[in-house]
Amino acid sequence: MSEEKTEKPTPKRKKQARKDGQVPRTPELGGWLGLLIASLAMGPLLNHELDAIRTMMAAHLRAASDPSVSLALRMLGDAAHHVFLSLLVLGSMVLVIGVVSALAQGGFYLSPKLAKPDAKKLNPIKGAKRMFGPHAAWEGVKVLLKSSVVGFLAWGAVKAMMPLVGGLLPIGVVLHQVTAEISRLIMTVAIAGLVMAAADYAMMRRRIGKQLRMSHSEIKQEHKQAEGDPMLKGAIRSRQLAAARNRMIADVGTADVLLVNPTHVAVALRYDPEQGAPRVVARGAGAIAARIRERAAEERVPLVQDVPLARAIYRHCQVGQEIPRELWAAVAQVLAFVLSRRHAGQYGGEHRTPRRTDELPEVVARARRRRRDGDAGIPA
């Protein structure tokens, strides 16, 4: 059973739908808006054109008394210039209307996917659903509604102009009244069309919004794709930890001494006079401490049992960090003991701490430095 889609679409789903051309849009909005602007501009435009025609006719009559080729060419150029300006005004008006209607419905978008051939579009079953489905029913209702509204408004305009028929009024008055009634009719039809276009846009927006709804499983799957599968990320994290831990265990062979507590904690230290204070090359507790002890035995790294010192360094240091200044004196005693045995040719072995007291100075807490790549992610 398919899961019910009750959740709102995510921004990623909306963006993908926009790429696929699934955007609420009605082509009628631009047409009705253009018709409304044309009705508003009809009066001034008609008066301007009538004045231009009168001027042109008067010029033609004057030219008939003394015709010439240059005069005819000049008059032809004036007429062409007038036609060009008229077409420019109308074209600009159509362009502006198209831009405004597109921006009002979500802006411009290009959908190359819609231009690609798709065999699914030739499916007769889906074609029948489109012809007899809810969308087709809504299109039929729109056609009937538009026809009824336009017919009703046209009949009202014709009925209002009937008293003008009969020849009792001057032709100028009749033309003025007819022009006003036609402009009013076009404006009324355009306003009604805009209302119907807004209703059509609302229906398309609701239908597409319903199509874009998502189920809980789809949202979870999208989240996994965006953030990464938690199981896969966990596996990668485990491998990274294992690799870092193996590198740390391998570095035990470079240590000068291994401090233990006596079996639960192990901290390997290396001292290089050129680098300053001794540094921690490996640290661990429990099973990791046991592996560090085994590696130290294999590499013949001396093991010194010093419970308080091992605990203090383990608590305050990460792999790659220098030991705290407060512990320099205690560590120096241990290193002096180890180095003296090395000079005597003695390596490895397990020893008790050469320090005569278990007391250590209090270590001031410090912000943990950023871990190096070698110990990143190694648990304490």
TrEMBL record:
Residues 1-25, 346-380 are annotated as: Disordered. Residues 1-10, 349-359 have a biased composition (Basic and acidic residues). It comes from Nocardioides ginsengisoli. Keywords: Cell projection, Cilium, Flagellum, Membrane, Transmembrane, Transmembrane helix. The chain crosses the membrane at residues 83-110, 152-173, 185-204. InterPro entries: T3SS_substrate_exporter, T3SS_substrate_exporter_C. Gene3D superfamilies: 6.10.250.2080, secretion proteins EscU. PANTHER family: FLAGELLAR BIOSYNTHETIC PROTEIN FLHB (PTHR30531). Pfam families: Bac_export_2 (PF01312). This is Flagellar biosynthesis protein FlhB.
